[in-house]
User: What shape does this take?
Amino acid sequence: MLSDDTIVAISSAVGPAARMIVRMSGPAAFGIISTFAQGLPKPAAGSATHLSLQLNDLSFPATLYCFRAPYSVTGEDVIEIHLPGNPLLARMVLNAAIAAGARSAEPGEFTSRSYFNGRLDLSAAEGVSAVIAAQNQRELDAARKLLAGELSRRLRPTMDLLAQTLALIETGIDFAGEEITVLDRQQTNSRIDQIDAELKKLLSESSRFETLSHEPRIVLVGRPNAGKSTLLNALAGIDRAIVSPSAGTTRDALSAPMILRRGIVTVMDIAGMEEIQSPDELSQQMHAASLRAVEAADVIVFVREVGDHRPEIPLPVQPHLRVRSKVDISNQPSPDLCVSAHTGEGMQILRDRLDELAFGPTSAGSSLALNARHIHCIEEARAALHRGGSNIEAELIALELREALDALGEILGAITPDDVLGRIFSKFCIGK
Assistant: This one.
């Protein structure tokens, strides 16, 4: 579905040299560039041409990258104009292209053209949006997998088996008057069970984009004067908590953002945990607030001084990591991780351990992530498969398998209502 107009947008600033990119896509792209790039030789597909542009009495260097339909990213003629990192120059080129007949691209229009021209399936197009919106390394890794077509690669064999099964059942219906058994009941149920098992496996092995955007919460727990506040300040890089040699300085939960290698987490210092010695209401409220913070934590770090040999405080859940603080004061051996917030000893090891606890093992690799639309479609398909497996009549089984195939087809865009497409592409930024 080639478009009859040409769109243009300032796409992005990339690389260490912060070069600006003006991108055009459409049938008139090569004609438009020739109107303000005088002397430009006929661009060859996949070529890079270095030249000097002159606009508004200003001359500046540019590099043109040309891609011919149907092998470009949008399936149309595409030109990318790479410019020095000055937004004013990019705006001048954009205005010149519009004056020569192009129009400003709508949000997501480049990617929607890629989809409609068969260069991307719908799940990969959503991967572009996910890459743009990624807030941490986990989201970015998962979005890249979606963009690379990983969901399509996982779904295609299952959809092929489903389509083949449906075709065999419909063939059996067409030859119902003949003594031909195309697919008996046992074979049909076996295929349905296999397809359902593959979809169930896909759901269980995939993350949810909604959970990837969750900011992990790390809670420092321990007795009063264990060094938690000093550790919080050191991890956050700011003096968020008041530090005092007097026990019980922290009387309420304090939190601060901490930047780890793969994303941002919230680290929280709570009031010292111990048995309530005083029955007064304030002590009880402090203890209750600390317990709530521990129960809601994603990662619990139990902190105590190197020389503290008392039994651990009973907690509602087991800590994920045990840390010995103030190793600069006492150097007693310990099986736990020993750190000093003052000298920095062990702090990088602590940050690495927290990164692994918050975001998973570094060797695990990035998982495929599904959004709410993908999950809804897969669950609809599984429901249709279950209904088909419980039916006896071949016509009803075929009807349910068609429903399942249509639901999975919506994920890749094979069968997608226009209103769904509009909602997806409207979330993109200009130039994507």
Notes: The chain has three domains: 7-105, 128-206+369-425, 217-364. The two ends are 18 Å apart (CA to CA). The mean pLDDT is 80.
